[in-house]
């Protein structure tokens, strides 16, 4: 595993938080712009990140480019709704089984890792804290850095190389979305799919090297990393 960097998505990968995150996002656009996103297919969008979706939704429904003022307004309301939802139901954002132990194990074995999420930095930190997952020692790149997932991953890699003072030649990504698979395939990064709710959506996707339910089987996980 020498010279290998492990990259983790957050929602649906380290935290079981997709439902609350999606609902708060939908409710934010409903309240601010009277836009109904309840029947939306996220896969139809080009950039499935918080900033990317916000840009595309405003352009599609309001026929204009998003401004920094509008984006900040969206973020402020979204953060408030997410905080309220998690306070009302702490289980709406919890760690995927074994995630904390696996992150700790990677640290103990001095295996470099970073986090790359399509969510905004503030909400990512809120969810990691709610799920009681350590994140301060880990390099984190988010949709606050860029609206494209590929660029977010590249930012995470660059920050990790600076943090660990080494240039990585191998990577492996843990993610739960079809959009994760698409960008990893384009970048040539092996991906392990995480399917905590066992929806089966990643089972037949050709580029996915393996699908796991959670992070309990650490021997298998370490073996997948070795083979990446």
What's the topology here?
Layout: E1 4-8, E2 15-16, H1 18-33, H2 50-62, H3 68-88, E3 94-95, H4 99-108, E4 113-116, H5 121-130, E5 139-141, H6 149-164, E6 170-175, H7 178-187, E7 191-194, E8 208-212, H8 218-227
Which labels suit this protein?
228 residues, alpha/beta, six-stranded parallel sheet, two-stranded antiparallel ribbon, 8 helices, 8 strands, 14% strand
Q: Would you give an account of this structure?
A:
- Helices cover 46% and strands 14% of the residues.
- Helix 7 links the parallel strand 6 (170-175) and strand 7.
- By secondary structure, it is an alpha/beta fold.
- The relative contact order is 0.18.
- It has eight helices and eight strands, in the order E-E-H-H-H-E-H-E-H-E-H-E-H-E-E-H.
- The protein is globular, with a radius of gyration of 17 Å.
- The strands form two sheets. A six-stranded parallel β-sheet has the order 5-4-1-6-7-8.
Q: Which regions are unreliable across 5 or more consecutive residues at pLDDT < 50?
A: none
Mean pLDDT: 96
- Major sheet: arrangement of strands: 5-4-1-6-7-8
**Count of DSSP H/I helices:** 8
Any idea what the radius of gyration is? 17 Å
Q: Looking at the structure, what is the overall shape?
A: globular
The sequence of SSEs as H and E is EEHHHEHEHEHEHEEH
Please give the number of β-strands. 8
Proportion of residues in β-strands: 5-15%
Largest sheet: 6 strands, parallel
Indicate the percent of residues in helices.
Answer: 40-55%
Distance between the termini: 9 Å
Broad structural category: alpha/beta
């Amino acid at each position: 595993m020498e010279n290998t960097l492990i990259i983790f998505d957050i929602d649906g990968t380290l935290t079981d938080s997709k439902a609350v995150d999606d609902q708060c996002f939908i409710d934010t656009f409903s309240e601010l712009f009277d836009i109904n996103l309840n029947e939306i297919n996220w896969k139809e969008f080009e950039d499935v990140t918080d900033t990317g979706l916000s840009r595309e939704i405003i352009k599609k429904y309001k026929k204009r480019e998003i401004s920094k003022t509008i984006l900040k307004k969206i973020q402020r309301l979204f953060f408030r709704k997410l905080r309220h939802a998690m306070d009302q139901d702490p289980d709406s954002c919890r760690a995927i089984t074994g995630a904390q132990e696996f992150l700790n194990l990677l640290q103990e074995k001095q295996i470099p890792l970073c986090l790359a999420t399509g969510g905004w930095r503030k909400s990512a930190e809120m969810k990691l804290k709610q799920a009681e997952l350590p994140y301060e020692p880990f390099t984190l790149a988010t949709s606050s850095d860029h609206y494209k997932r590929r660029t977010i991953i590249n930012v995470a890699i660059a920050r990790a190389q600076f943090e660990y003072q080494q240039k990585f030649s191998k990577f492996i990504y843990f993610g739960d979305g079809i959009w994760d698979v698409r960008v990893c395939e384009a970048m040539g990064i092996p991906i392990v799919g995480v399917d905590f709710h066992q929806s089966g959506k990643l089972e037949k996707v050709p580029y996915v090297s393996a699908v796991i339910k959670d992070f309990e089987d650490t021997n298998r996980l370490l073996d997948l990393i070795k083979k990446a």
